[in-house]
Amino acid sequence: MSKEVAAGGAPAAGDDLDLGVIWRALVRRRMWIALPTLLAFVGAFLIVNLITPRYKAETSVLLVSGDTFYTRPEGGAGAGSQFDEEAVQSEVQVIMSRDLARDVIGKLGLVGNPEFDPDARVLGLSQRVMQWIGLSGSGKARPPEERVLATYYQRLNVFPLPRSRVVAIEFSSADPDLAARAANTIAESYLDFQRAVKQSATQAASQWLAETIEPLRKQVAEAEAKVEDFRARHGLMSGNAGEVTLPAQQLAELSAQLSAARSAQAEAEAKARLIRDMIASGRVFDIPDVANNEFIRRLLEQRIALRAQLALEERTLLPAHPRIKQLNAQIADLENQLRQEAQRTVRSLENEASLAAARVESVQKAVDAQSAVAAKAKESEVELRALEREARTQREQLETYLTRYREAQAREVENASPADARIVSRAVVPGTPNFPKKVPIIAIVTLVAFSLAGTLVIALELLSGRAFVPAAAPPAHLPPAQAVSEPSRVEPAPPPSPVTDAPVSAVVEAQAPAQPRDEREAVPAATTAADALAPLMARLGDRPAEGRGRRLLVTEAAAGAGAVPLARALADDRVRTERTILLDLTAGEAMRGARRPGLAELALGSASFSDVIGRDAGTRLHRVSAGTNLADALAQKSGALELPLLALDQTYEWVILVVDAAGLEALAPHVLPHVDHVVLVSEEAEQAEATRAAYARLAEAKARDIIVVVPQADGARAAA
Predict the structure, then answer these.
(1) Alpha-carbon gap, residue 582 to 585, rounded angstroms
(2) Closest C-alpha among 550, 565, 583 to residue 663
(3) Contact predicate 604/573, CB 8 Å
(4) CA angle 549, 552, 558 (to 5 degrees)
(5) Which of 499, 529, 592, 693 is deepest in the core (most CB within 10 A)?
(6) 171 CB neighbour count, 10 Å cutoff
(7) Contact 118, 207 (CB under 8 A)
(8) How far is CA 622 from CA 467, 521, 529, 534, 613, in A?
(9) Would you say 67 and 416 are in contact if contact means Cβ atoms under 8 Å apart?
(10) Closest CA to 540 of 519, 584, 585, 510
(11) pTM metric for this prediction
């Protein structure tokens, strides 16, 4: 499917606005401006001087707990802990409440004040007529305070200061002294209101506690009586420890006695066994119990004396002498007595061990009996503990209520409950009126009148048509272009479906001069031909990209086909008013800017936008060079071109990339996925093979919206 568009001349511009004509009209009709301005000045001056001035006074109240260490109830919250943002707003509404307003109105005597009470004013004729026909009710039918409330709230302004717990109370009045007294009275009434609310709550709590304590006392007495009765019926009397029952305490004492008896038995048996072994081994006198015996000590002393006497006699007498035999017999008798006394000690220890064993047996029987009693008492202790727990809970509750009742009674007296706020700044009598602001009002009214009068003069001049001058005559129409009639030779096969939509063919005429020898000569020639590219621009502009600028790639089928002049003509600022940037990716530009950073360095991140963007001399066109080894840089970092183009989209409406035939094959895979349109320039119609090959390469690289531009025999260019 093909579509042909004939290109004529550029569309004629509309009439231009002549600022000189508008200025002369303003000067000519200056009285139209000066007179309303002067009237507005005089009127504003008279009005602001006739209006009754109002004075505004302000009082500041800090919301903070007034309780001190001596007035705060036990366990109460600390100062200021209850005032968050919502609480501050709630207190503002309390200050503006109707109950507080009625109290303030009564204290200030606003009823009967003509400034606030409508019934105290002298009614005009219109107001009397409105009342007579029933369209305005009589204010005397309402309560006196209700008649004043509307004006009272108009003059009152209460607001919290940002990031604080301070509330400002503003009141305005024609009387400066009344404005100051009203602001202070509202703050004091608010504090009195808080104290009254606290005292009322304390009285209600005290009354409730008094009604609750008496029944609770009876419940506590009944619960404690049940505990003692149950304890007596089941024999669970408390022992010396107070918390242990008597059976358990007796069992513990018997267990201690049993342990002591077993220890005594074991000790006596061990001593008796030790003494018997020492007697058998002949070490009678090494036994501590034997050695410490007084009788044995005397026997030992006698034996020592007899042995000393025997030794003395043996020096003069023979062993068979009667005296010697007598002494030996006495010594043997003493040793026999010593041995008998040791045996007696062993027997006494054995008797003690027997007695200890008997005591152990007796105590063990008592422990067994008491254990049975204690085990039976444990079952009753469970129920006893439940009764004690209930009695203790009721006792604690009663004590708590009694403490709170005493505190409530102490706080019932006047001024015992401080308000949770204090006045931090009292209002003073204002010396200057708050309304009206004479100088600003006069200045604003005068300026508005001057602006409206000037705007009216300009509007009349624009509507008359004298402010416009005809634009320059448009260039002559060019002869219509001839479409390329080689569909079988020039038009390639349609690309496969997954690439993009089939390219739309269009014929666009553009006049262009002969190809210059170098690019510097091509710049003015392309600029001259730009006026005839309006159809091509319309063709490019019918598919705007959403949310970004439009990207256009201009390339050529063969070397020297003129892609650079056409790209510059498309980017010329005389063609459109949108901001445009030209990315010159040709080999010639890369050689000239080899020492300057370009798109390659920007894509790799080694250069910034301010380093690579330059301005074309004498135009508003911005341009960027290719840089060093752009193809290698893009191949090295996949997708590196998307981020720079996306950034340029945010600043420029058109981003035009120009690639010559030499660099098309290397740059096409990296550039084509990121552009919206492709303009393929062919040097002449006879090079259809090169054009078709370039077209096929672009289609294979997934190019979108390919437009082929070829020259005609008469020097014009046609695009298909």
Answers:
(1) 9
(2) 583
(3) no
(4) 170
(5) 529
(6) 26
(7) no
(8) 35, 19, 20, 21, 7
(9) no
(10) 510
(11) 0.43
